[in-house]
Amino acid sequence: MFILLRKIRKSLIESSSFRKYTFYAIGEITLVVIGILIALQINNWSEWKKDRVKEREVIMSLSENFEMIIKSLETDTIALLRFNESSKIVLNILDYRLPYEDSLANHFHIARVPKIQLTLSQSGYEQLKNVGFDIIVNKEVKDEVVDYFESTLPNWFTNYESVNYPYVPFIDHHVPLFRYTRDKLVPNEILALYDDEYFIG
Questions:
Q1: What are phi and psi of 179, to 5 degrees?
Q2: Where are the beta strands (DSSP E) in the chain?
Q3: Average pLDDT of 10-30?
Q4: Which residue ranges make up each domain of the chain?
Q5: φ, ψ at 171 (rounded to 5°)
Q6: Is 160 or 149 the better-scoring residue by pLDDT?
Q7: How far is CA 43 from its chain centroid?
Q8: Contact, 83 vs 189, CB < 8 A?
Q9: What's the burial of 175, exposed, middle or buried (CB within 10 Å: 0-12/13-18/19+)?
Q10: pTM of the predicted structure, to 2 decimals
C-alpha cells in the first residue's frame, strides 16, 4: 500500500501538475486521519472493555458489602431483642417485688450489659471511591449507592448513637449487692434493689 502511494506521489511530482498533486496530498492526509480515528476507536473500545471489568468488580464488592451490613444488622437486632427481653424480665421482678430465682442470674447480667458499638463495613464503597464514581455507567445505581453511604448511613448512625445509652458502671456502685461470675449477676439482697432508682435507671 505504502509502495503504491510512493509511486503515485513520484509520478505526480514528475508530471508537475500542482492540482493533481494537491488532490493526492489531501487524499493521503484523509487516509492518515481515518487511520488515526480507527486506532483511537479501537483504543477507546479496549479501554471501555477494561472499565466494564472494573465496574463488575466494584459492583460485586458493593454487593458483598451490603450482605455484610445486613448480617451485622441482623446480629445486632438479635442481641438487642435479647437485651430488651432480659431488661423486661428484670424490671418486672423489681416492679412487682417478686422473689429472686437462680434462673434470673443470666437476665440480670444481660440487662445491664452495655450496648456494643455497631460497626458497618464500607469496604465496597471505599473501593468505588478509589476507582472513581464514573466507573458505574448506570447513573441511578451510582446515585443510590453514593446517597446511601454519604447521607443515609451517617444520619442513621447519628440517630443510632443518640439512643445508645452510655455504660453506667453500676456494679462498682453496687459491689456489696451483687456477686458477679461469667454471664451471671447474682443479687446478694434482692430487697435492696426494689427501691434502688440508680439500678432501675
A1: -115, 125
A2: 178-181, 184-187
A3: 58
A4: 2-200
A5: -65, -40
A6: 149
A7: 33
A8: no
A9: exposed
A10: 0.66
Alpha carbons 25 and 32: distance in angstroms, whole number: 11
Predicted confidence at residue 168, as pLDDT, reads 47
- For CA atoms 179, 184, 189, 194, give the dihedral sign: positive
| CA pair distance 69, 174, nearest whole angstrom | 38
Contact 193, 199 (CB under 8 A): yes
Pick left, alpha or beta for residue 154 (phi over 0 → left; psi -120 to 50 → alpha; otherwise beta).
alpha
The tens digit of pLDDT for each residue in 116-149 reads 667 888 999 999 999 999 999 999 999 999 999 9
Give the DSSP letter of residue 148: I
Residues whose CB is less than 8 angstroms from the CB of residue 63 and which lie 6 or more positions away in sequence, other chains included:
124
Report the C-alpha gap between 147 and 156 in whole angstroms. Answer: 12
Instruction: Yes or no: say if 84 and 66 are a contact pair by the CB < 8 Å rule.
Output: no
Question: What's the one-letter identity of residue 161?
Answer: E
Q: Which of 80-89, 140-149, 166-175 has the highest mean pLDDT?
A: 140-149
